[in-house]
Amino acid sequence: MKITPVQRAARIKNLREKRKLERELKVRDRALRLRAKKSSGGGDSAEATEKKHQRRARGSLSRDEIVKAAFDIIRVEGVEGLSMRRIADKLGCSVASPYAHFENQEEILRILITNGEKILTQDLRRAQTSATDVYDQLDAIAHAYWNFASENRHLHRLMFSASGGKLYRKSFPTLPTSYRVFLETIRRGISSGAIPHPRKSYPAIASTMWAWMYGLIVLDLNEMVRQPKGADPVKEGIEYFKRMLRVPLD
């Protein structure tokens, strides 16, 4: 495959960064060994210190390990806490090691977004099949989406935030599978007559309800709206949508 000038420049940049990181690590390791020798006055303690700071070999890492480490970091510290150096520290390897499996951090983030989309879609499919009535299905789907966002707050931010949205669109250039579940449910409701609206209106109905769900979740995640104890904002919103959807359009 022919490499474009942009790709060649990116590879050269990544290679330079790797070499720079490797040099920094060598300098740091050398400083640690010298410090250990000075503090102990002998070679045995220095050898023990060197073993203590020994890092994993690059070949001992796997892509799955790196992705899992990145996910664990995001789950606790948020996207802001993620970096290749932070991943390396967590796995006990050199900073250059993850680059043997991934070209850059963006590639890891895209995998996390793809994995998150798979989990969300599975949750929504499960909710969809938990009922036969279209309105009960919409209720279950909305609650499943809410639960996913509540249990994966930082991952949801990565998937649907302004910065993560660009990566999300790269991962899903067409409609994402999670949104398709919502879209299909509305379309079937219209086809069956349960939702007495023109067939051509189902995309607008689906996007409006999805936007409402997203807005509600973002407000909750950012603690911008205080809910009374025991309140179910999802249920309240769905009830309003049910009333509107059950009214035929002229």
UniProtKB/TrEMBL annotation:
InterPro entries: Homeodomain-like_sf, HTH-type_Tx_Regulator, HTH_TetR, MT1864/Rv1816-like_C, Tet_transcr_reg_TetR-rel_C_sf. Residues 83-102 bind DNA. Residues 36-61 are annotated as: Disordered. Pfam families: TetR_C_33 (PF13305), TetR_N (PF00440). Residues 60-120 form the HTH tetR-type domain. Gene3D superfamilies: Homeodomain-like, Tetracycline Repressor, domain 2. Keywords: DNA-binding, Transcription, Transcription regulation. One of its GO terms (molecular function) is DNA binding. The keyword Transcription applies. PROSITE patterns: HTH_TETR_2. This is Transcriptional regulator, TetR family.
